[in-house]
Amino acid sequence: xxxxxxxxxxxxxxxxxxxxxxxxxxxxxxxxxxxxxxxxxxxxxxxxxxxxxxxxxxxxxxxxxxxxxxxxxxxxxxxxxxxxxxxxxxxxxxxxxxxxxxxxxxxxxxxxxxxxxxxxxxxxxxxxxxxxxxxxxxxxxxxxxxxxxxxxxxxxxxxxxxxxxxxxxxxxxxxxxxxxxxxxxxxxxxxxxxxxxxxxxxxxxxxxxxxxxxxxxxxxxxxxxxxxxxxxxxxxxxxxxxxxxxxxxxxxxxxxxxxxxxxxxxxxxxxxxxxxxxxx
Amino acid sequence: xxxxxxxxxxxxxxxxxxxxxxxxxxxxxxxxxxxxxxxxxxxxxxxxxxxxxxxxxxxxxxxxxxxxxxxxxxxxxxxxxxxxxxxxxxxxxxxxxxxxxxxxxxxxxxxxxxxxxxxxxxxxxxxxxxxxxxxxxxxxxxxxxxxxxxxxxxxxxxxxxxxxxxxxxxxxxxxxxxxxxxxxxxxxxxxxxxxxxxxxxxxxxxxxxxxxxxxxxxxxxxxxxxxxxxxxxxxxxxxxxxxxxxxxxxxxxxxxxxxxxxxxxxxxxxxxxxxxxxxxxxxxxxxxxxx
Lengths: 280, 291
Prior knowledge:
Chain A is α/β, with parallel strands linked by helices.
C-alpha cells in the first residue's frame, strides 16, 4: 500500500483542495495540518468569575495547546491505518479533525467518502431508552434516514450478540460488555467509506473481538478505509497495514505496523525517544 | 445514502465568521429528522418513569395559571378592568404561550452543553440540538390549546356575561403568530446556547431572567393597562408584541394592530438573524470548549 507521509514541509501554495486536487484513490488527504487551541486555566467558566475578573481588571488566563503540528498524510481507499502514541500525543484530536468535528488551525483536510465515527464508546447513548431507540438515534446522528437505520437495527442487534429480547430493554439494564458491543456494532454497520475508531477495540470478549476484526477485514475488502487509534499494539499489528506514531502532536515515524509498534514499545519501556527523533 | 454524504469534504481553518451558508443550511434541512427524533426520544426518556407522563406538561402551566389568577385577583382586590373569567382566560392563554417560548429558550440554552458527548463524536450542524428542544417545546404546547378552548367553552356556557369571543376569523391568524413566536424563541435559544458554552452559569441566570421576563410581558396584566410612554415596554420586549397580539386575538376577538404585527416580524428577524449569526459563527469551536 502507498501511504505517503511527510512532516515539516513548507506550507503549500494556497491552492484550494477540491475534487480536482483530491485524487479519487485517496480516502483522506491531510496537508500541513496543525491544530492548536486555547484552554481556559480558570477552574470554572462562569459569568460570575468573568465579572469578578473584569472588576479586578484581570484578563482570563489561557494556555495554548498545540495538539497536532504540521502533519501531512495521504491515506488511500481500502487501507487500515493504525495510530499509536502516548496520552496527549494528539491522536484523538487528529481523529476528530478528520471527522470534521475540530477545525484545523493551519493546513487542510480532504475527506472522500462517508465517515462513521466511534470516538468514545457509547457516546450519545441515553440509558433510559431501549437499545433499539439508541441505535436509531445513533444512526440518525451519523446522517442516515430513519428508514435506512431501521432496516439495519436487527442486523446491528445480531452483530452485537444481544440476548433475546434485550434490544427492546432499557440500555441501563445492559452489562458493560453488551453496552460496548452495541456501540461498536452501530459504528461498523453504518456502511461507512471511512471508519474512525478511537480506543474502541476493547469492546466485548475474545469471540466478539474476532468477530469485529473479521467485520473490519470485510470492510477493507470492500475498499473502505479504517483509521484505528489504540493502545492495544497487538491489535494494531494484526489489523493494520500501515501505522504512524504520534508524539506531542508530531509524527515521529510511519511504516509497517510491526516496526512502528516495536519502536513505540521500546520508547515506552526506555522512556526516551530514539536518538534520531531527539531534535523533533 | 444521499449524495451529499458522499462528496469530497474539505476542512480548512476559519476565522470567527460564518461557514458557507448554503451547504450548512442544506445539511441542516437534510438532517432535520435527527432533530425531530431526538426530541421524541428525549421526551420519551424524561416521562418514562412518570405515571401521569406528559399530562404534567398541561397540568403544570394550568396550576400555575390558577395560582397567578388568585394572586392577580387578590392584588387587584376585585377591581380589575376585566371580569374574573376573562382575566383567568387572559392569564391562561398568555401563560401557555409564554411557556412555549420559555421551554424553547431554557432547554435550547442547555442543549449544547448537555449534548457534549454527541458533539465530540459526530459532525453535524450543531443548531439541530436547539432545534430539537424547540420541537419538544412545540409538542408540549399543542395540547394546551384544546385545554384552553375547553375551559372557554365551559365558561361561556356557565357564565352568561363573559366577554370572551366565540368563533371569529381572527383565529386563523394564530398559526402565523405561533410560527413567528417559534422562530423568535429559536433565535433566542441559539443566542443563549452559545453563551452557555462560554459561561456555564448562563442557564442558572436565565431561570431568573425568564421569571422577570414573564412579569415584564403582558401575561399577568393586559396590554391596555399601559398607556403613553409606558407602552414602549411592550415593544422593547422581544416577546411583547407577540403576546399582545395573541391576547388581542384570543381575549378581545380583534385583529392585531399594525404596530403589533410590525413588532412581531421585526423581533422575529432580529432574533433569528442575530442568534443564528452568533451561534453558527462559533459552533465550530464548541467541541474544543466542551471537551
